[in-house]
Fold each of these.
Amino acid sequence: MTLGSDTVLDRSFSDALRAGGWWVTVYADASMDTGDPQGVAAARRRAVRDTLEQRGLPEDQLSVVSDAIDGTDGVPSPATRYLLLRDGEIVMNRLLPGPPVGTEVTEAGPVPLLVPLLRHQEDEIVYLVVEAGRDGGEVAVYRSTGETPEQTEAVQGRTDTLKKFKGGGWAHLRFQHHTEEIWRQTEAELGAVVDRLVLELNPRFIAVAGDVRARQLLVDQLPQRSRDLVTQVDANTRAAGASSEALDATVENLLDEIARSAQNADMERLAQELGRDGGAAERGVGWTVHCLRQAQVDVLLLDPDQLGERTLLALGAEPWVATAPEEADPAPILGDVPAAEALIRAAILTDASVRLVPGTLLPDRSGVAGLLRWGTEAPTGG
């Protein structure tokens, strides 16, 4: 997953990290597709509460957690809850589609545990699906991590000219022109919605399905910035009894292509920079920590599984992370935490992006590497 200024961990989250405090992380199954949903939900709340009580969480914060994980707000099962509290205040409370990815977590400590969120929301991509018709259309906003649209907007056009006039002569041509103009106006309204969402959400692509003539009129009227994002799907999904199979397949292919392209670009850049003296990349925990401490890392690439049980020191001020106590001064040491969490936290606090990648793609199976904002000095001596 990529984390940066335009992703799920925004500037307000970075500010919360910078402020410090005592964090509670809950990552747990929230699915309700059982024979006794209320009983299952009560058992989950009780289990989370008991664990946090053992961690020394005070009663008022236990109540906040219990209330925060109650209910699913209509999100369909399977679903997963991700909750972060800092000093008893909710920083993030998300219901994520799908079952938990990996181990469920209920913990309290000096840093939030972000790896579960990254694993679950790997490569989140915002995209639009447009279904255009001569009578109007609909625009749906999706995230690649969700199965249902985040929002939808519909445009209803005039329906008195859906079929062209079948007469002849001058009256026929005049009516045909009038009908085409009505269709064009309808698609212009739909296009205005699409372009507004492009400006607001910066989607990675727009899949356009529907009536062939309506699609043509819509795309022709889009500004170039939106038109460049369009992939047309040869399927009239608005017709009665129509299948969405072609549209679904196109969306899946586009998502796969984007994910592969981003990962390949990172790996190619990493190989190139590591292959030259003074290149803008480093690998391994020690060197990556060194670069993070200088705010030199642009993109942090890591595999939490490869890092295993290794730990690092999380610091309460710059440079945010250390491998040993003597590197911390004058920053306070918050605690000895999992290396992946310490690295991710330091990356966010220095405005770096974070991507989870398979450890087999990282050099020497080191578990972590960094693409840098500026090059390193050429090594000298031994």
Note: Residues 275-372 form a domain with the 60s Ribosomal Protein L30; Chain: A; fold (CATH 3.30.1330.30).
Amino acid sequence: MVIIRTLKNGIRVALEEIPYVRSISFGIWVKNGSRNERPHENGVSHYIEHMMFKGTENRSARQIAEEMDALGGQINAYTTKEYTCYHTRVLDRHFDRALDVMSDMLLRPLFAEGDVRKEKNVILEEIAMYDDAPEELVHDALQDSIWRDSTLGMPILGTAETIDGFGAEFIREYYEKNYHTENIVLSAAGNFKLDDMLEKLNAALGGWKREQPFQPYNTAASYQIAAVEKEKDVEQVHVCLAFPGLEREHPMKYAAAIFNTLFGGGMSSRLFQRVREENGLTYSIYSYTTAFADTGVFSIYAGMNPNQAERVFELIAGEMEGVKETPFPPKLIEITKEQMVSNFIIGTESTLNRMTSAGASLLLRGSVEETEEIIAKIEAVTAEDVLEAAKAVLRTEEMSFSAVGNLKGTDFGALVKRFF
């Protein structure tokens, strides 16, 4: 069971004792991502994530790496559009030392001007790497365009232009305004005693306070129809079709998850079987959902030879119409629910997964659902619910598309209009 507590300074904590393991996973969750940036700040949240590993008042970047390596532990971080997470996983007997490193990184980052300049080139290379990967760019370019009139449409990494304007003072000011006790939660799962863990977290982080009040910057976002085409010197064309999706806490989210699994979420899905297995037209084809606090998107991806695009679009359109008109057989729904429940339960056997689930839930929802609650909601979904979810997300009148790669001789806008 996940227990929610609060440190002396107001930071919320999600703790789960798992006495039969020998590890502890620990995460620091900051409700700050690219969505919380103003246009001239775009990319600074991700930049700060990098800089946290570049040294503190007490440790150099090398010392941070060497201390964690010496523990045989893992330490990493990532930034999304809505939050940043720093996490570690170590043996229970090494947790105190890992916590000392993690709290030092959070509370006393150095942000040295020389390190900021060096890291700028690293991040510019990261931006260029994504731009050189059409199978990645096709997703990001489309979503950036769909949310184009809000900060949700800004890229997580920022742009070469915005990154170039960042200096150490600018980064520190943003960190001090946006890393605050009011928008940070901690999460730990593993072999520890609740009271002992609370004492350690209070000692390490409970005395930290900001002088200035927290002033969040958020913008509402809504789906807008988009069409993106980018020519790249590659053999294939990568295509993404997108539709208005469901927000993170929508009542139909579990029905939509089951629909996605059946429609394009695996090797037995309708799309994979029809387009790849039966017709051999693509190597990779799948669907997926992306959910935010107030909006979402449902996407279909396929990579193909350009001269196969017309037939691929025709098959996708046919499958879309089929799943909106005829419910999936109840037996297939039950099999899919069992698959999802099994994957979920197996995932909970990892302390890292359990820490991640609780931390993200507490940060974004303000509460944590127990495993049995989630399983019960999955098992309650009916064939009619899945049909309703299919109709809710596959709204062709609001379809967007992106095509990245070899576009020569193919009018993707015309294909979209013809088949959808």
Note: Residues 227-419 form a domain with the Cytochrome Bc1 Complex; Chain A, domain 1 fold (CATH 3.30.830.10).
